Amino acid sequence: MSAHSTERVTACFPILERITDGALRQAVVACWMKVWEQSVWPDLTDCPFTVLFPEITLVEHINCVGELVLAAADIAERHNPSLRLDRDFLITGVLLHDVSKLLEIEKGPEGLRWGPLLKLMPHGMYGAIVAVAQGLPPRVANIILSHTRMTNTLPASPEAVLLHYLDYGLADVLRAHRGMHLILDGGPKLGR
Length: 192
Known about the structure:
This protein is mainly α and 192 residues long. 53% of the residues lie in helices and 8% in strands. The protein has one domain (6-177): Hypothetical protein af1432.
């Protein structure tokens, strides 16, 4: 597999295959390809999840959040029989929620740093723009936008709410593990 290939995107994100709608699956891959080609990262696994945790790759983070969200969705539905979460939209949102980090994080002379994209728009905004440009519905854009409080966008679906809380929850678990200020406690918004 060569760099910048759809096969590489598919290999990095095993839950992609759980999207039953082929058009949604193809749009997710197209979003990743577009942003990856604009980035400085030779391979998707080269980009870190955040400047604060450079040893965790973006790919690892998204896969972890995906497993957490899907497990939580199963448990929530089992205990609340009337709840039905749309797995296709949930997985699509999970896979694209941090795609913009490929452009938001860059290597500088002193190491990793937040890039200029974050001065132009809040985290998550570019990913939502790319998603809509690839033909994904506004519902997916809302999942991407509302996963972070940086966009001041409220979740508009149960799927968006679930991703928002589990993504922030994971970030705070990692922060607590290292004795850092929690996002929950008003810690820095950036660096999730």
